[in-house]
Automatic annotation (TrEMBL):
Residues 189-285, 288-381 form the Link domain. It comes from Silurus meridionalis. Its main location: secreted. InterPro entries: C-type_lectin-like/link_sf, CTDL_fold, Hyaluronan_bind_Proteoglycan, Ig-like_dom, Ig-like_dom_sf, Ig-like_fold, Ig_sub, Ig_V-set. This is Hyaluronan and proteoglycan link protein 3. It is found in: Secreted, Extracellular space, Extracellular matrix. Transmembrane segments: none annotated. Keywords: Disulfide bond, Extracellular matrix, Hyaluronic acid, Immunoglobulin domain, Repeat, Secreted, Signal.
Length: 384
């Protein structure tokens, strides 16, 4: 008893062969210790009994952890892809092993590390019992799913354009905490992009800017690889990727494209000099809220008229990334050449047919014609 009292004074954590950690008011603790000394044999079989006994109404001043009970946190999905403007559920579930019969007072916290290179984690939300709180830009857009007792999955609705990154779900049970991370990315489409000035005109920064001006961003290697694997992207000119490498995807090896000796794949020139080397770009566009449409007009338009007609229609001339996203995710199919924002003329085909370009789906391009020539126009309208 003497030793126990000594520990009691020294602090709130008492550890009997790793069986108990506790923090509570002293009289209660003393009582508890007396119990323990007499009942230590029985302890390992009666975890939940002790738990209930000590916090009958669930508001113990302290917290008790029987380390015989372990907290497990899991996510069935470490990578979640979602569509911008839609909603998403980032899975996170916890359970105790062995199961506890009494409800535990568990805290749930979600943190976010943006994919924009931020190293600091930001608060997303915190929940304790029925109380919860969301932070910053997430206020009013996040909740816990709570579909089962251990469900701490985060629902974000709607998803905004810069919500991607690494989310961390932290479950806290008194002194114990466990966390898992879930990566959120947008579903999107990779497209090759080159300058109106011609091929291989961009240094790294110019490539990055060009993608951003077209409603996209530089693709990552993983995105390019997925586009090659899943969409058979085949492009014979090297483009910058977000990691500073220049690469190109080949589905059908051919002489003009690195030769027939090499197997199909993504071919890399490796990391290149960011200011001295020049390539095209591989951009990544995710679905943007709103609609891309071909503006039906009686007469074709030159470029400046095209820009103006979209504005008159309550819209903006569509960016290349928006046209690609609308083609890929909204099935935009229009066999009419139209101006887009960068001064190129394109049209999107999902159902290939006669007189509409090659016999595979794609966004066809006429390149950058002189701006006095007349075509249709693709506009982008945001709908809230
Ligand atoms: C969330 O998105 C799904 C489609 O992914 C949709 O069916 C559902 O209605 C959306 N829920 C809400 C609350 O917006
Ligand atoms: C387009 O046509 C308008 C006249 O309708 C003219 O004022 C304008 O300069 C033309 N723009 C271009 C780029 O040729």
């Amino acid at each position: 008893m003497h030793r126990a009292q000594h520990r009691l004074q020294s602090d709130v954590v008492w550890n009997s062969r790793g069986l108990v950690k506790m923090r509570m008011k002293r009289p209660l603790l003393l009582l508890m210790l007396l119990h323990l000394v007499h009942a230590s044999q029985a302890l390992r079989y009666s975890n939940s009994f002790y738990y209930q006994d000590l916090s009958p109404d669930g508001n113990a001043n302290g917290e008790i952890y029987f380390s015989g009970v372990r907290l497990h946190v899991e996510s069935p999905q470490a990578l979640v892809s979602a569509v911008q403007g839609g909603n998403v559920t980032l899975p996170c579930v916890y359970r105790y092993e062995p199961e506890v019969s009494a409800p535990r007072r568990t805290r749930v916290k979600w943190f976010w590390q943006p994919s924009t290179g931020e190293t600091k984690e930001l608060h997303v939300m915190a929940a304790f019992g029925s109380r919860h709180r969301s932070y910053g830009d997430f206020r009013g857009r996040v909740r816990l799913r709570r579909s089962t007792p251990g469900d701490a999955s985060l629902v974000i609705n709607p998803l905004l354009s810069d919500d991607t990154g690494r989310y961390r779900c932290e479950i806290i049970d008194g002194l114990e905490d466990e966390s898992i991370t879930v990566e959120l990315q947008f579903r999107g489409i990779v497209f090759p992009y080159f300058s109106p000035m011609g091929r291989y005109q961009f240094n790294f920064q110019e490539a990055k800017d060009a993608c951003e001006q077209q409603g996209a961003c530089l693709a990552t290697f993983e995105q390019l690889l997925a586009a090659w694997e899943e969409e058979n992207l085949d492009w014979c000119n090297a483009g910058w990727l977000a990691d500073g490498t220049a690469q190109y995807p080949v589905s059908v090896p051919r002489d003009a494209c690195g030769g027939t000796d090499l197997a199909p794949g993504v071919r890399s020139y490796g990391v290149r000099h960011k200011t001295l080397d020049h390539f095209d770009a591989f951009c990544f566009a995710s679905l943007i809220k709103g609609e891309v449409y071909f503006l039906h007009q009686q007469h074709n338009l030159n470029f400046s008229e095209a820009v103006e007609k979209c504005v008159q229609d309550g819209a903006q001339i569509a960016k290349v990334g928006q046209l690609y996203a609308a083609w890929r995710f909204a099935g935009l199919d229009q066999c009419d050449a139209g101006w887009v924002a960068d001064g190129s003329v394109r049209y999107p085909i999902t159902n290939p047919r006669a007189n509409c370009g090659p016999f595979e789906p794609g966004v066809r391009s006429f390149g950058f014609p002189p701006q006095h020539l007349k075509y249709g126009v693709y506009c982008h309208k945001v709908r809230w």
